[in-house]
Amino acid sequence: MRSLKKTPVAVLRNMLELSIDEFGKLVGIAPSSVKSLENGRLALSEKTAFRIKDETGVSVAWLLNGNSKQKPYVERLPDGSSTLYTKERFERIQATKLEPNDESQEKLELRYDRAIAIITDWLSAYFHADEKGEADLAEYLMRKALEEIVDRFGKDDDGFMRVNAKAGIIQADGTPRAFIRSSRGIHLELILKSKKTAKAKS
Asked: Is 161 contained in some domain?
């Protein structure tokens, strides 16, 4: 049965050429719930959206924004463009579901790209707030948002340091900083140039 309703769930099911029963079984919801999601009588919850994302590979953001006129995509890239979603991606996911779920380097790099895109947006907003004399307010709002995120998802400082043990940033003046964990949490610390200094003296 092809749905004529214009909701992201309806668009996705039609693209995958699945019946209502098949789609419901795939994501673990009743056929009646699929119908309600497609005609808009039932709002799509975050829990169900993530379940659909896990089974199909489509973006959670695309599912939840409710704009069915926008083409389905996989991820938003740092430059604002999108990797469009295809039925082939769904088929590949289904074909590999029984294989070990190893964290690939490609997935890790994609997460870095997404995280950096968010951080750069924050820094741009923060610097603009600072120019207007409102840096303190911007910091307060960001900390409030982070507290809500940490309360909801928790955080893994040990995991972060394992992955980023050799990572860091280089400032505009060329000064390197590395991630350091202390009693204050994770922060960036200047890397001492002791080796370069020793070579210069010799």
From this structure: yes
